[in-house]
Amino acid sequence: MHAAQVPLAQADARRLIGRALEQAGRPPAAEVLALPGAGTTSYVLRVGTDLVARFPMTGEDPDAVRAALVAEHAAMAEFAAACPVPAPLPVAIGEGDAGFPLPFSLQTWVEGEVATPTSVAGSVPVAEQLADLLGTLREVPTRGRRFAGGGRGGELPDHDAWMRTCLENSRGLLPVEELAALWERWRTLPHESADVMSHRDLIPGNLLMGGGRLVGVLDAGGFGPADPALDLVAAWHLLDGPAREALRERLDVPELDWLRGAAWAFAQAMGLVWYYRETNPPMAELGRTTLGRLLASAEELVR
Fold first, then answer.
1. Is the Cα torsion angle 39, 54, 18, 5 positive or negative in sign?
2. Domain 113-301: which CATH class?
3. Taking the mean position of all CA atoms in its chain, how far away is CA 258?
4. Which one is the CATH code of 10-108: 3.30.200.20, 3.40.50.300, 3.30.70.270, 3.40.50.720?
5. What is the pLDDT of residues 219-249, one digit of tens each?
6. What's the Cα-to-Cα distance from 27 to each of 22, 51, 54, rounded to whole Å?
């Protein structure tokens, strides 16, 4: 899926997981089952009935990967303590060996059906649950922390170079001229609201449903301070118009934050279609669906 991707053989995964379980004082797993397509940055394997292993797909320095996993585990624990529905908890960091050279994460399993871009698109109850989730996360103290790094959640113009790459690579796949005009309109939207605690990747694949309700949230290792508009990407990745409006009204989103939320959803979706169209079609379809919603609502998203 990525350049310089580190391969993981099933036998290596089983051996390393077994060693990590033993060191953590846990019984051996009856079964280790790969979950193809469950991750874009990690190989995801179900371990028995109650655990998940996530092996990084990329990385050259084991020490750097381990430090990142330590930070992710701390963020996961903070998120799970605040989240109104179940979320994975960190269990252990396993070490690599000659077969697979990088450390990996063991986490608890959360039951539920992974959402898709259309599976809950018209659900006002899910929209209201998402609004309540975002409101709860925003109540977590930042403790003086602010957004840092080059990912989504800081300033929109910082992504200009990546957007140019995405637009160029999307020719023949998407209406590039229309999309370029949208980015030009949104990229200068000012960031006026203070940072709040955010999941930072509320895509359908990280949301679990059951009985028509949100029952779990995955992949919270990036939980931290960001533009309050960032987590609003969920409105565009998952919901159609009326449900989006229900989320916006329940959360009482200011107009500028709503527009920036659309811009962040755009910035994420633009990188999905061309990048994943051959290696991960569901992610490419997410990009298409989100961009379609944004284009359909473009005239409402002018400031």
1. positive
2. alpha beta
3. 19
4. 3.30.200.20
5. 999 999 999 999 999 999 999 999 999 999 9
6. 7, 12, 19
